[in-house]
Automatic annotation (TrEMBL):
<keyword id="KW-0067">ATP-binding</keyword>
<dbReference type="GO" id="GO:0016829">
    <property type="term" value="F:lyase activity"/>
</dbReference>
<protein>
    <submittedName>
        <fullName>Argininosuccinate lyase</fullName>
    </submittedName>
</protein>
<dbReference type="InterPro" id="IPR011761">
    <property type="entry name" value="ATP-grasp"/>
</dbReference>
<keyword id="KW-0547">Nucleotide-binding</keyword>
<feature type="domain" description="ATP-grasp">
    <location>
        <begin position="132"/>
        <end position="314"/>
    </location>
</feature>
<dbReference type="GO" id="GO:0046872">
    <property type="term" value="F:metal ion binding"/>
</dbReference>
<dbReference type="GO" id="GO:0005524">
    <property type="term" value="F:ATP binding"/>
</dbReference>
<dbReference type="Pfam" id="PF18301">
    <property type="entry name" value="preATP-grasp_3"/>
</dbReference>
<dbReference type="InterPro" id="IPR040803">
    <property type="entry name" value="MfnD_preATP-grasp"/>
</dbReference>
<keyword id="KW-0456">Lyase</keyword>
<dbReference type="Pfam" id="PF02655">
    <property type="entry name" value="ATP-grasp_3"/>
</dbReference>
<dbReference type="InterPro" id="IPR024710">
    <property type="entry name" value="MfnD"/>
</dbReference>
<dbReference type="InterPro" id="IPR003806">
    <property type="entry name" value="ATP-grasp_PylC-type"/>
</dbReference>
């Protein structure tokens, strides 16, 4: 079996852009690419190929074929060649600017088969406002939000504050900020943003392995966010409290059921409120791709997570069992065990 693993920022997605690569996206992208490459490389008779931005020549993927790219033309040539030759391709790319959607379309155009979610799911999930409207229509709890037009910096008076302002198609905590009132002056942004109610509680995420018929939930995780107004993603841990983990998993399953059928690895972000019955719990957004939680989940379960992903997509049975419930992880891919 031949797998083409493409991670956008490490794989040359910005090869035509001068200057340093965005630090937070590079950190999380590197962590996911390394973890996925290692897991696929462990599978019997599996050849793994990756593209690598020539500026990252020290980034190593043991046991994998690595092709350095140094121009846009070379990137297109090698991407199409590998996508067309591989048995499966997996793209890890941000949703903004339709990058993920266009990448999976390019895999298909090259004659490849993707482990990613279908276009309908990806396109909807990439738009946080449309996704929230879909959930509201289906009765899935999610914060109320409104759209701020491109370049708009004035906040509406008739809205509930504090609130979170984020790109409508954002990823990786980019350009997210917490605003206290309509008098705040957020930095200008050239594209549309969603202003949504801030919901206090415990940030959480639940990933799932999906095909069109079956959704297998992975262990629920807590999220660590920065305590400033940026709400930057710092990492997470497996959720230690069984009751909270069940609430998170059930709500994540409801959120996915209200959307078009998914495929592959997807992640659902939530906030669990103070009500013990879950009446304050809300879904925040869905990520139609592998998320950084992969680096922790792979260390916490008995199974090879990349193999489980393949089985889910191809309709084979998937069973997930927890080996170590005390795993914690950081956005840079570091993992450790906390037995407190």
């Amino acid at each position: 079996m031949h797998v083409f693993l493409y991670e956008w920022i490490t794989g040359g997605g910005l090869i035509g852009e001068p200057g340093p690569l965005p630090p937070s996206l590079l950190q999380e992208g590197t962590a996911m690419a390394r973890a996925l490459a290692a897991d696929f490389a462990k599978l019997p008779h599996c050849r793994v190929s990756l593209l690598r931005d020539v500026r990252l020549d020290t980034l190593a993927y043991p046991g994998c074929d690595v092709i350095d790219v140094q121009s846009i033309g070379e990137w297109h040539e090698e991407f199409d060649r590998l996508a067309g030759a591989a048995d499966w391709s997996l793209a890890v790319a941000p949703e903004f600017d339709q990058i993920l959607e266009r990448t999976t379309q390019q895999i298909a155009a090259a004659g490849g088969r993707t482990l990613n979610a279908p276009q309908e799911f990806t396109a909807l999930a990439a738009n946080k406002q449309l996704t929230a409207e879909r959930w509201q229509h289906a009765g899935v709890p999610t914060p109320r939000g409104v759209i701020l037009a491109e370049g708009e910096t004035s906040l509406p008076i008739d809205f509930t504050y504090p609130a979170v302002l984020k790109p409508v198609d954002g990823a990786g905590s980019q350009d997210v900020c917490l605003v206290a009132s309509h008098r705040d002056e957020p930095p200008p942004y050239a594209w549309a943003r969603r202003l949504e109610e801030f919901r206090p509680g415990r940030p959480a995420s639940v990933a799932a392995l999906c095909n069109e018929a079956i959704v297998t939930m992975l262990p629920a995780c807590t999220q660590r966010l920065s305590n400033d107004s940026r709400l930057a993603y710092l990492g997470g841990a497996l959720m230690a409290e069984p009751a909270l983990a069940e609430r998170a998993s059930l709500l994540a399953r409801r959120a996915l059921a209200a959307l078009p059928p998914a495929r592959g690895f997807v992640g659902v972000d939530l906030v669990l409120g103070s009500d013990a019955n879950g009446d304050d719990d809300v879904v925040i957004e869905v990520n139609p791709r592998v998320t950084t939680s992969y680096v922790g989940l792979r260390q916490a379960i008995d199974q090879n997570l990349a193999e489980a992903l393949l089985h889910a997509v191809t309709g084979e049975p998937v069973k997930i069992t927890i080996r170590n419930p005390h795993v914690e992880f950081a956005a840079d891919g570091a993992t450790w065990v906390n037995r407190r």
